[in-house]
Design goal:
Helix content is about 20%, strand content about 35%. With about 450 residues, it is of the alpha+beta class.
Length: about 450
């Protein structure tokens, strides 16, 4: 009988020594802060049905489970309510009744840490272990109709645990569990779990108040515009609109540049180095500029709609020596530009404009004059002081007197200011065999 009691007692002690779990939850009403002076007139829904308890482990013996589903979305809603006129916590299925949905991700973990501390009144130091609470909060604002992100905020915090200035807490806890055969282990875990919960609550409110909400307030214009990017601030391009409508933005797997249409059925001239060895390239038109850079994490355009706007052009002909290429995309009644192939029109001092995507900034205009017309190794080249940067390659150099294309912008000298070059339109006709109107029989038919 004594043997069985001893076994039962040993089993209970082993269970207690093995540790136990603290169950807690984030309380409601933890975020309290005054409203911003001017609120954004929008309805926001904080998604409430996609949260799971976070389980933390320290020293391999105690587990701390903190439930987020009660207080966490409420805290975020309270924070967003200081900036937006209407904020609710609701289930995901109701998202289309709102202007934006706020989607939350939260990670927390107890991490071991170490620090070197100088002992008082001595010249020696001691390495101590300090457990840290690591928390990461990600708040993503989404368009509820498309599901794509409008803005995303991500903040991480490392916080040393209270009463953990030395490694005494770790070894004292172990010793206490051994001496008492684990009797006080549950109390220890519950007390420490409460500290962790309070730290998590403070971390959530501090991150929202001091990091995320100020960023959202500074970028409030992101949330005051329509979801349709085509309805955002309208460009005022005036007399340059016809030129821009005939200028295209070209993407390949490893480069970007510009080009321009020379026929209403989709023939395009650009530089050979823009297309490289590609057989097909992506082409974006001025009226479909909502695409922009697909790598932008804050892209508001609907990618599904955007994909339908991308035109794909075949590379028909290239000349590496003269850095020219001819492309063909499907289309009809497209705006296009006429080539000025009469070399007598290339006069020094004539005012010109370069239209393209310098440094990826699409449909930008720079203005200047023809500085000189030169023969560079048998290639007819126009020198201009109109700014040309990376991304302008392949764009048209346009005469402001006639509106015709004088050349294909090719490169600029970074070591010298206002020293830029374009392959002349005369050279385009001579090299690629292009005449206007373009005769499709002069070039191989693109494969369907």
């Amino acid at each position: 009988m004594n043997f069985h009691r001893a076994c039962a007692f040993a089993l209970c002690a082993a269970v207690l020594l093995g540790g136990c779990t603290y169950h807690g939850k984030i309380h409601r009403g933890i975020y309290r802060h005054s409203d911003y002076q001017e609120k954004v007139n929008a309805r926001v829904m904080v998604v409430a049905d996609k949260f799971y308890p976070e389980t933390l482990t320290v020293d391999g013996s105690a587990r701390y489970s903190i439930r987020l589903s009660d207080g966490f979305p409420v805290a975020v809603a309270d924070a967003l309510g200081t900036l937006f006129t209407e904020v609710d916590v609701n289930e995901y299925k109701y998202r289309k009744n709102y202007d934006y949905i706020a989607e939350l991700d939260y990670k927390a973990d107890l991490l071991p840490g170490r620090a070197e501390v100088r002992l008082q009144n001595t010249l020696t130091s001691q390495v101590i272990f300090r457990p840290f609470l690591y928390t990461q909060l990600t708040l993503t604002m989404r368009n509820p109709q498309t599901g794509y992100a409008v803005a995303r905020y991500n903040e991480s915090v490392y916080t040393p645990l209270p009463n953990a200035d030395t490694n005494a807490w770790l070894w004292w806890t172990r010793l206490l569990r051994v001496i008492t055969l684990g009797i006080f282990t549950p109390l220890d875990v519950q007390a420490y779990g409460s500290q962790i919960r309070r730290m998590m609550e403070k971390g959530i409110t501090d991150t929202l108040r001091h990091e995320i909400m100020p960023q959202m307030a500074d970028s409030r214009l992101n949330f005051t515009k329509s979801h349709e990017t085509e309805k955002t601030n309208t460009r005022v391009d005036g007399k340059f609109i016809p030129f821009m409508q005939a200028t295209v933005y070209i993407h390949t797997d490893d480069s970007l540049g510009s080009g321009f249409l020379i026929s209403p059925d989709g023939y395009i001239v650009t530089n050979r180095h823009v297309v490289g060895d590609s057989r097909d390239v992506s082409v974006i038109l001025y009226d479909q500029r909502a695409l922009m850079d697909k790598t932008d994490p804050f892209l508001m355009a609907d990618p599904e709609k955007t994909v339908n706007k991308v035109r794909f052009a075949k590379v028909l002909k290239t000349n590496k020596t003269r850095d020219l290429a001819l492309l063909k995309m499907q289309g009809e009644n497209l705006p296009y530009l006429e080539l000025e192939t009469d070399r007598s029109a290339y006069t020094t001092g004539r005012e010109v404009a370069a239209i393209g995507a310098p440094k990826g900034i699409e449909w930008s205009v720079s203005r200047g004059i023809i500085s000189a017309v030169r023969d560079r190794n048998g290639i007819d080249v126009i020198q201009t002081d109109a700014a040309i940067n990376h991304g302008n390659s392949g764009s048209p150099l346009i005469s402001l007197q006639t509106g015709r294309v004088l050349g294909v912008n090719t490169w600029g000298r970074s070591e010298a200011e206002s020293l830029n070059f374009a392959i002349s339109a005369y050279e385009v006709r001579r090299t690629l065999g292009v005449r206007q109107p373009v005769n499709p029989d002069d070039f191989p038919r693109p494969e369907d």
